[in-house]
Amino acid sequence: MTPRHPLRGVRTLLYKEVLRFWKVGFQTVAAPVLTAVMYLLIFGHVLSDKVQVFDNVGYTRFLIPGLVMMSVLQNAFANSSSSLVQSKITGNLVFLLVTPLSHWAWFTAYVGASMVRGLSVGLGVFAVTAWFSPPGLAQPLWILAFALLGAGMLGALGLIAGLWADKFDQMAAFQNFIIMPMTFLSGVFYSVHSLPEFWNRISHLNPFFYMIDGFRRGFFGVSDVSPWLSLGVVGGSFLVVSAIALRLLKTGYKLRH
Amino acid sequence: MPAVSFQQVSKTFQSPRGPLRALDGVRFDIEQGEFFGLLGPNGAGKTTLISILAGLTRASSGQVKVMGHDVVADYAAARRSLGIVPQELVFDPFFSVRETLRIQSGYFGLHHNDAWIDELLHELGLSDKAGANMRQLSGGMKRRVLVAQALVHRPPVIVLDEPTAGVDVELRQTLWQFIARLNKQGHTVLLTTHYLEEAEALCSRIAMLKQGRVVALDRTANLLAGTASTMLRFKTDQPLPAALAAQARVTGRIVQLKARDAGEVELQLAALRAAGIKVEDLEIGRADLEDVFLEIMQGAPTSEAMA
């Protein structure tokens, strides 16, 4: 009998989830990098003379961390959500449902693979955009902390969306009406201080704002709010979203009827 | 310890037209090493019962155990003991046959399982398709991969849910020879099928489900012995006399009449002659499982069957 390894199951699922997006890497990694570069070229070019957010930071340089983080978040979400919803619709999720893998194993593998995809795209965006205008690395630990937490939270959020959605259009609705507005209204393209008072306050209720602000802190050493506050908000959000995802997996929500 | 134990399993689904009782107090055991058949018409609850066994569906009440492990409380051990070949022809389009089988092994905690994977590929006639992407395979080949996937972890209990639906003769032969060999080696097999001749040939014991209840549970031989044992078959273009028509099973031109013994056959032939019915291809044979099945499903008395 072949020996059984306790962590082999979760490692296999993580490997399979990474392999799944890597096999179509042109669509899952290269395409989002190109999109982000387009944003940089167009917004950076049009607005570079008109917007000054931080002292001594040009608009193109300001934009790069926001675009990197936006790519990390959107791709982390897309990975777990699309994998789950596809497996549910095509029916091949049954291969996973009949295995002894626990809800912790599902969570670790799906969120882990989402983080790998989000961070791969983020790294790609950074590598290409930094070539135009290197943003600097003032406090790299903040970069690492917010990239990991942000990718993890969006991976877990994608897991919830993937469990909830029964059809591709429901998934698209989740993405277009929740994830997209939250990323665009988080300060990727501007500092929330440049917004009118009302919208400025609304932005402070958006956890995505703290992810981007904290992440940007790592590059420039300045931010709209304290990075410790951001870390608290993002860390707390990650724990809440993870707890919900784990709960849904444990109860077999929309998986085991 | 039985290989599989269903204890008063009930399942009610919520449907727009109110609650739907798919299973109603199903209770039976499958002993280790048995080749067991689960039969019933569409909608009888076979797939629901198997889904509960596999942990895909949860029972509303009752308990299911695989090799002594509760499928809910001790799900990991129960699922390690179980290999399920699903009814739907599903596959993951991202991977090759070998990748699919390696991944499935990994889910069960198995690494370096290639010797067994190679054996499975060989036994199921898939060796030359190992590197092919799942999308490139024909329906029959995909079905073979489903069987291999269910067996990667060498489960003591194998469940086949309609494994030969829409499958060519060659695969049916290959598959049954392979499964029969696994059964001889000690694996317990639970089979649902629409092909009653397969169940008759392979299964030593059979349960029949009707509207979520077990209506027959016995050794295949006893089920066959318990029914009217003789069958008169012929073809005709003419309508049968009323007395015979009431007990006949008519499929196009083919008429089948049950009889308890040779004397009853003689009476039936006399009645046909008296009515001036012209018959062709007349033959007298033994009743098969299909006859038993229809008799039970039509609600005929099944005292022997309810053992």
Which bin fits the share of residues in helices of chain A?
over 70%
The biggest beta sheet of chain A, please?
Answer: none
Number of helices of chain A: 10
Overall pLDDT metric of chain B: 88
What would the average pLDDT of chain A be, to the nearest integer? Answer: 90
Name of the CATH superfamily of the largest domain in chain B: P-loop containing nucleotide triphosphate hydrolases
Count up the domains of chain B.
2
Structural class of chain A: mainly alpha
Q: For the terminal residues of chain A, how far apart are their CA atoms?
A: 34 Å
Largest sheet of chain B: 6 strands, mixed
Global morphology of chain B: globular
CATH architecture annotation name of the largest domain in chain B? 3-Layer(aba) Sandwich
Helix-strand topology string of chain A: HHHHHHHHHH
The name CATH uses for the topology of the largest domain in chain B is Rossmann fold
Low-confidence stretches of chain A: none
Strand order of the largest sheet of chain B: 6-7-8-3-9-10
Runs of chain B with pLDDT <50, length 5+?
300-307
CATH class value of the largest domain in chain B:
Alpha Beta
Q: How many strand units of chain A?
A: 0
CA-atom Rg of chain B in angstroms = 22 Å
Report the strand count of chain B.
Answer: 14
General description of the model:
- The complex is a heterodimer of chains A (257) and B (307).
- Chain A is mostly helical.
- Chain A has one domain.
- Helices cover 75% and strands 0% of the residues of chain A.
- Chain B has 2 domains: 221 residues, 3-Layer(aba) Sandwich (Rossmann fold); 59 residues.
- In chain B, 34% of the residues lie in helices and 29% in strands.
- In chain B, the strands form 3 sheets. Chain B has a 6-stranded mixed β-sheet, with helices on both faces.
- The C terminus of chain B is likely disordered.
- The interface between A and B is medium-sized, with 33 and 36 residues.
